[in-house]
Each structure stands twice: as C-alpha cells, then as structure tokens.
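User: Sequence in, structure out. Go.
Assistant: Echoing your sequence, followed by the structure tokens.
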Amino acid sequence: MLNRLRQWICPDLAIDLGTANTLVSIQGEGVVLDEPSVVALQKGTRRVLGRGTAVGKLAKQMLGRTPDSITAIRPMQDGVITDFELCEAMLRYFIQKASRQSRGMRPRVIIAVPGGITPVEKRAVFNSAERAGAGSVYLIEESKAAGIGAGLPISEPMASMVCDIGGGTTEVAILSLADIVVSRSVRVAGDELDEAVIEYMKQHFSLRIGVQTAEQIKIELGSAYPLEQELTSEVRGLDTISGVPRKAVVTSEEIREALREPVEAILNCVKTVIEQCKPELVADIVDNGLVLTGGGALLRGLDQLMNEQLGIPVRVSEDPLTTVARGTSICIEHLAQWRDSLDSGNDI
C-alpha cells in the first residue's frame, strides 16, 4: 500500500541516456519523453538559454543555425559525459518535465549506459543524476536493457544475442541466465555514419554539408545492402572551391559506399563477440540468431548484410529506437527482481 502511494506521488523513472537522444519512461506509463541530448547556451557563459528550458528539441533546432551569441552543445559524446555541468542541467530538465516530483521525495532512477564505460565515467553518471534530482540511482548496461526490451529470453539457460547501434556507441552482447556472457562496445555508431557522409560529400562532390543534412541523407538514401530500386536525392551545401551554395544529385549507391567503412567496423564487432563465445552458446545463436536494436538498426539492408556475412538469422526488433528504453522501464517496474544485477552508487 505504501509503495503504491509512493509511486503515485513520486513515480520511479527509467532513463536511456543516449548520445543522440534521451528517453524517459515512468513506471506503468511507458516512454513519456523522447528528446535530443542537446543544450543551448549563451556564448561565453554556462547559462542555459530560456531560463534553463533551451534543452532537447528546441536546442537541436539551433544546431548549425545559431548566431555568434548562442552555442548549441551535446554534453554526451560516444556514450559518455563530456560536459558534467551541462549533462546535469539536461537531466534536471528532463526529470522535472517527465515526473510528478513531490517536495521532499526523489524518484528512484535506472539509467542505461554503454557497457564499455569506465568506473570514473559511471561515477560521473551517478553524480550528475543525483544532483539533477534523482534519489536512488542504478545503472544497467544498454545491451542487457536492449535484450530485455526486445523480449529475448535472457533469463533462460540459452544464448540470446543483441546488437544495439545507438548514436555514439554500438553494443554487442551474448546474454544467458540474466547476465552478459560476452560483450563488446565500440565507439562507432550513428554519429560516425553521419561523419562518413559529410566526408564523402566533401571528397567526391567538393560540397560541405552540416550534421543535420548528413543525417537526413543517411535516412533518405542510406543502405548497407544493394536495394531493389536504387534512390537519388538532391543535396544542398557549400562548394568548397568557389565558396558559393550549390546543389548536387546523390545516389543511394554512393551513400552506401560512403557508409561502408563504419558498417564494416560494426560487423567486425559482432564477429569478434561470436568468436569469443563458448561452442554450446554458439549453437544457440545459430538457432536463435541476432536481434538489431537502436537507431542504426533502421539502416536499410543492414539485417540482410549481417545475415549474409554471419550465416545466422538476423532481425530488427520492433520499434528499435525505444527498445533500450522499454527494457530499462521493465527493470524499474521489477526492481526487486533485477536489483542484484544492476550497478548502484555503492558498487563504484
């Protein structure tokens, strides 16, 4: 009874703290907030614009479009905090926006983090969350949260394999008996795909484009495997030679070539994890296959390429953008069951 009353007054939160986007779930309600991990500042100061509200969607709209007096910053890079003060401000804004905080009560919070972060980086997440208004804070590895969110039988004595391709990191793990057996985290993911498009346009078209334009090209034309019907699109940018704006027509074949190197790095990460796995569990993977989650899983033909290169079934999870958030939310709803497998502040 007391627990239900507490949840009504100050519900627990699950946070997928991503390099590109942060998702917040409330116990019993699912994902209630999905915003870019971006903060806008008055240049030369540490003051967040709009009385602390220029965070998320509003701040992302300013990326690449701000006057000299404003700076739009992402406090997360490659899955870790690079600006502690701004990450704290961002978390505070998201927690206050998502929760019904009661004076004197702080929500319990589970945060999904990359598997490859160091104890120092974990401590930074704990400190930022606590200063932002969280009570008890727990950390869960993104790959485990992805497995739970994808509905894989990770508690069973059999291998389940997941590859979560986020904005800053790709997490690959084989799970069994509710824990990670083998895992690998590489800092090659959505951001590197965008950078590859920017570099390709510069090298082959002498055209300079911004990050948001590159992301749009990746979404419209990007693929990892030949398409049944190849696509074309018109791209606008700045000519690197003449210095004037111009357009260029780009094809999906060209963008596939641009993305080839980071896609191969992700594929090699998956191969490495399989090679490190015990033979008994490899047999399970041959039967059960690999599940792709995260925004990078939406790249056309990535599942086909991996299926061809790995020789195992590969599928994309339902709504891959929210899979980690769903898994983290399930953990907060069944905290007593999962608490022992989570990192708490006392463990760091």
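User: And one key feature?
Assistant: The domain at 2-36+78-144+323-347 is CATH 3.30.420.40 (Nucleotidyltransferase; domain 5).
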